[in-house]
Amino acid sequence: MKASSSFDRLSKRLWNDCGIRLDTKAAVYKAAVLSVLLFGWESWTLYRRHISKLDQFHMKCLRQIAHITSSGKTSSKIQKSCRDVKLPAFLLTVQLRRTKHVVRMDNNRLSSLIFYGQLQQGERRTVKTVQNPLKANLTMLDINPAHLESRTADRTSRRALCLQTMGRFEDSRVSYAENRRLLR
What we know:
By secondary structure, the protein is mostly helical. The chain has helices at 2-9, 11-15, 22-37, 48-66, 75-82, 87-104, 110-116, 131-140, 148-151, 155-183. It is built from ten helices and no strands.
């Protein structure tokens, strides 16, 4: 995997160097490794197992950057120390941002045609299309998919909506993980 090899190439000069601050290491990680890991992911059909594998790699890298053993801290504490968001929240943010751009596009552009397109004849054999995971994510974030186009017209309200929903999503995800940890 290319992301793993780019992470390994930086380990001697950057990750293991104690003279470099953690926020600098995290910024380089986002630019050099995370961008390689997620290159072109907007066109992927992501299932939960894929997101889980991506998140496991992401957390492994953050633990190694912060020099934390796997039993040392929980993932939310590692995220706070690296000032990083959880990968599913990051993916949702980018997906919402991309969707807002596609909704505002002209109807004759290829991205818009794919997004709104339906089969003329025949039957759909795939389990998920572009719209199915998006609708599921929007309902999970308490955004009505029917009102998506009207919500994307105003840029300031769109940004506020995105930040507010992602904050709620991340807070609920962290509290759910902490409750599960306490029950164990």
